[in-house]
Amino acid sequence: xxxxxxxxxxxxxxxxxxxxxxxxxxxxxxxxxxxxxxxxxxxxxxxxxxxxxxxxxxxxxxxxxxxxxxxxxxxxxxxxxxxxxxxxxxxxxxxxxxxxxxxxxxxxxxxxxxxxxxxxxxxxxxxxxxxxxxxxxxxxxxxxxxxxxxxxxxxxxxxxxxxxxxxxxxxxxxxxxxxxxxxxxxxxxxxxxxxxxxxxxxxxxxxxxxxxxxxxxxxxxxxxxxxxxxxxxxxxxxxxxxxxxxxxxxxxxxxxxxxxxxxxxxxxxxxxxxxxxxxxxxxxxxxxxxxxxxxxxxxxxxxxxxxxxxxxxxxxxxxxxxxxxxxxxxxxxxxxxxxxxxxxxxxxxxxxxxxxxxxxxxxxxxxxxxxxxxxxxxxxxxxxxxxxxxxxxxxxxxxxxxxxxxxxxxxxxxxxxxxxxxxxxxxxxxxxxxxxxxxxxxxxxxxxxxxxxxxxxxxxxxxxxxxxxxxxxxxxxxxxxxxxxxxxxxxxxxxxxxxxxxxxxxxxxxxxxxxxxxxxxxxxxxxxxxxxxxxxxxxxxxxxxxxxxxxxxxxxxxxxxxxxxxxxxxxxxxxxxxxxxxxxxxxxxxxxxxxxxxxxxxxxxxxxxxxxxxxxxxxxxxxxxxxxxxxxxxxxxxxxxxxxxxxxxxxxxxxxxxxxxxxxxxxxxxxxxxxxxxxxxxxxxxxxxxxxxxxxxxxxxxxxxxxxxxx
Length: 711
What we know:
Blueprint: H1 3-36, E1 38-44, E2 49-52, H2 54-59, H3 71-77, H4 83-96, E3 99-107, E4 113-124, E5 130-139, H5 141-163, E6 167-171, E7 177-180, H6 183-188, H7 192-195, E8 211-216, E9 222-234, E10 237-246, H8 248-289, H9 293-315, E11 330-331, E12 354-359, H10 363-374, E13 379-385, H11 388-398, E14 402-405, E15 409-410, H12 414-424, E16 429-434, H13 438-448, E17 452-455, H14 460-470, H15 497-519, H16 525-556, E18 565-568, H17 569-584, E19 590-592, E20 598-601, H18 603-620, E21 624-631, E22 634-641, H19 671-681, E23 685-690, E24 694-701
Parallel strand pairs: 11-15, 12-13, 12-14, 14-16, 16-17, 19-21
Antiparallel strand pairs: 1-2, 1-5, 3-4, 4-5, 6-7, 6-10, 8-9, 9-10, 18-20, 21-22, 22-24, 23-24
């Protein structure tokens, strides 16, 4: 092959490659037009020929290449009302040899009207005269319809704003006011134009949150309002519309209805207490003043029976729990003593006296035991302990002959203490004196090493008799006091931890009256007065316990009242935690509750729930945390601890009546049940959350819709 032939072959190859590249570019161009729905044209002015892309034919409603696209054919497809406008745009561009853009309507073969947007330019020849018109166009029919619908919607929205009976604020995403209606002036005293451009927090300090909140008038006064919000598409984009309704009149009506209902509930409650407890206790005091001690004792028994009748419907639901194990009776704190008399100064034991150590967390029970035993010949109370651990410590130090031991106590319960007492003081005799019935706890106590078991509420003579049986060589005896023929011989309750809590004040009242009846002639007048006062104080404690039972009963009927009012929940939580820690000497509790979050709640009832939850947290954990935070249209109060948590599979029992899950601690097992019902009475909920801690979540709506009647 000659050199010229080789050059020719090379040029042919290069030409074929260039043709391939052009074809690929054309394919890419066609694909791009198809995907973007954009068509193109190239109109040669001199020959009146127009090169349309396939996509442009489709935009005009025809198959590609269906006709010769002359300028006249193009004009025939333009809507008659737009032809003059199109001719004017083209003539101006040809005269100026410039670019142009326009919007025109076209007619499809089936009569459908479509709207196109076009952009093009006039291409000159070598002498600067118009030679070609090239450009692109795309179908904007749907976009045009959407824009028109949006404009109509925006107009309707403006009409709605101005005619709405509520205050309407239009906000951007940053919370700044874009627009307000005239209602703003009559409700809040602001001029609509004066608020434009300002942050909404100037009228809503708590922010824009759906529900009940407080708005500020222009003069700084408060207005209770209900807020509802929605996002709306407007000409300037998506905005937030907030509707504020003044609820001053409605709130006053709701408050009045709640007050009337709560007053009725409290009245019924007070009448029950008066009829069943107060009048009975008053009769006892009058009988004591007259010196009719036997009749006073009988009246006390009747009063206690009446109190038990008030609780019977709830106690029957307690059921029969399994035997309690060591450690499950540990109380979070001891019973609060009501007597002001101090124990006598320690004296040297009388020769041959039976040396007794008293271990009970109830100050009044220990006082009764001490007063009775010290009036008996042959007894010497050598020490008193308020919990199981102190009992073991004193037993090791004092080496008593006998220990009178309660079962439910702080730090270490009686079942835990029994083997420890026998270890540090070999030969000691242990008499369990407990609020639990024999059928529940006697076998467990004897198996742990106790020598006798007595129920609280029996006559003191039963304890003396039992000690005499255990120590026959001491010659202990007691002259039996004459029994009141109307007396039932002591207290009798159904089996349950609830019974233990209720029995303690009842036992104190009965024991003190029995002591007054049997020992009035040997007790100093000051001690007699203290015993009467203690009886009344324990009656008030009994009344507090009945309040809990009454709450539970009302809750079970859906009649647990709440009295909501605008409340700074963060401040309420902080003060509640501070008061609880101070009054119970609890370790510090970490609180995350910023002030300024205002909600409609009953502050007394919320304090009650926090006290229940925090009491559990401190009792079962070494650290506790309390937090308050907004959660959409609600707020959450969380109380957490690092304790062992709820046993798996037993979550369903947690909020039941009398539920304790076999755990140690005081109480009747009604705290969580009442707390959840209080949350629901507010329109909220109380739940357990597992997040690495034991966390209870109290959810309360920012917009109050409290249940005040049967649900």
